[in-house]
Structures are given as C-alpha cells and as structure tokens.
Amino acid sequence: MPNRAIIGDSEKEKGDSLLDFKNSSRYEGDILASRWLTRLAYDFRKASKNVLKLELYLEVIEILLEGEPARRLDSTPRIRKIINKRAIAT
Length: 90
Hints:
There is one protein chain. The chain is built from five helices and no strands. By secondary structure, it is mostly helical. It has one domain (9-88). The longest helix has 15 residues, at 33-47. The radius of gyration is 13 Å and the shape is flat. The protein starts with 8 loop residues before the first helix and ends in a 6-residue tail after the last helix.
C-alpha cells in the first residue's frame, strides 16, 4: 500500500490533491538518494500545481526515510538541525 499524506487545508482549498508517493515511496538506501529525491519531487508536482513549501518537503523526507538513511539523518547534527528548524525554512 502506498504511503499517503494530505496537503494542508489551505492547499486543498486551492484544488490540490492527495499525495500518494507512488514513485518515491519509503527510502532505505537501495537507490541513489538523488534519484529518490527526483521521484519525490515528481510526486509533489503530480499532486500540486502550486510551489512546494520547503517545510512540507523536509517533513516528508524525514517521514519516508527508513533504516540506515534515517539513522544518518538522526546522527548528523547539521542535517538534524535543518530538519528540526524546517518550520522557518525559506
């Protein structure tokens, strides 16, 4: 079953649809990270014609990482700081 997330209410009001992550799915390090990020960006573009909010993008990346990639994110202070401060990302 694909991973699904709903875009926030303000985006739904603009006619955006449900994100299904059909192309990106969870990331466990089995393909190049750049390829997975490209697939993730495609899933976002498919669901929305609006500009992607960086805060949502970073949140989804954290949610979809599994195994070693998730451990690396958690153990790398610079990346962890970016994820933790995603609410003020610009």
